[in-house]
Design a protein that fits this description.
By secondary structure, the chain is of the alpha+beta class. It is built from 5 helices and 7 strands, in the order ααββββαβαββα. It has a 7-stranded mixed sheet with strand order 1-2-3-4-5-7-6. The longest helix is centred in the middle third of the chain and has 19 residues, at 97-115. It is globular, with a radius of gyration of 16 Å.
Length: 171
């Protein structure tokens, strides 16, 4: 079950909670992505798309794709501000792309909560399709905060918090 934050004020409170924890020496855990984690998703895509699905681990990224271009998903694990599964890019094409997107999103939420990710991030939504996906599934625009010494602005990125314990700490 995803726990949706209600507004930008709650996003701000979550960032402030992160910085308080960081000042107290509490660091978010790192979750390494392993190919074995995604075997079930590959089977779902293969059955639905009726194509060969390839998966490769490239550094911190896991790529899941078809050679025909009907599917390309790039995921990575990030630890700031909370353990985050980042959808770095995705393309889903075809006659049944909405069902494929829904299956992907539902699998992603389940996987994320089971493996300890507290947040999903959809990075750099440059297309109408990715922006529509973010809004359809309840992502909010990424909270922008200026932090001295850090230069990270993820324009057109979206986030969703999945961990109820985080939400309870700010409400």
């Amino acid at each position: 079950m995803s726990i949706l934050i209600k507004n930008k004020e709650e996003q701000k409170k979550l960032m402030e909670l992160f910085f308080r924890k960081q000042r107290n020496g509490i660091r978010p855990k790192t979750i390494d992505l392993k190919e074995v984690y995604f075997e079930e998703l590959v089977k779902v895509f293969k059955k639905q798309l009726r194509e060969e699905i390839r998966m490769e681990k490239r550094g911190n990224y896991v790529d899941i794709y078809t050679l025909s271009g009907t599917l390309h998903i790039r995921l990575r694990s990030d630890q700031v501000p909370y353990p985050t599964l980042v959808i770095a890019s995705f393309t889903i094409k075809g006659d049944d792309n909405q069902r494929t997107e829904e299956n992907f999103f539902n699998w992603l939420k389940k996987f994320s909560t089971q493996t300890g990710f507290q947040r999903l991030m959809l990075e750099n939504c440059h297309s109408n399709e990715s922006t529509s996906f973010a809004r359809k599934y309840g992502f909010l625009p990424l909270y922008q905060q200026t932090v001295p010494g850090l230069d990270f602005i993820f324009e057109e990125s979206y986030e969703m918090y999945l961990d109820a314990s985080l939400i309870k700490q700010i409400r």
